[in-house]
Write the structure tokens for this entry.
Amino acid sequence: MNKTGLSLNLINEGKGLIKTDKNELLIGVLSDTHVPHRASSIPEKVIDDFKRRNVDFVFHLGDFTSLEAYETLINIFGKNKVIAIHGNMDFDPKLRKVLPDKLELEIFGHKILLIHGMGGPNMIVKRLIKKLALPNSDYDVIIFGHTHRPVNEKKNNILFFNPGTTTPIDNRLTIISSYGYLKISKNNVEPEIIYL
């Protein structure tokens, strides 16, 4: 347990239970940072905002593209506060060795799935619903990346949340830079997209 009273107990096969003595958690959410292939670093503005808002955790949904980018977040926020998965562009075997391809978490009773995503950006939510058989699941929140486009919508009583990317590169996928926050308490999950 760290000095904020938070602990993360990861159990077998990428499942975890986040325990806390707080009534509410604020999570900074990133994906598809592509460092150093598309940017030299995760934007300082994002890191500074996470620090200013005193996030309890940082979730990263993959496509770091380097182990160093992951280690940078750990060096800034601490190993217990950075929860991440790998994406389809994370070819570094060291990164794939330390990060799973998905994580199931439970926070204040909310069942949450972290997954990178698959396929093109159009109809991504519909694709996730079909691929993951979500109408038959008990997930409350699906957090994903991959498409570089922010998503904040509810379907089938599930919140689908994609923070987008901090490093857009062309008009083909997106020209928008974004990241996000999830404020989670026992009775509520409040999503927020921040545009750079």
Q: What stands out?
A: Helices lie at 44-52, 67-77, 93-98, 124-131.
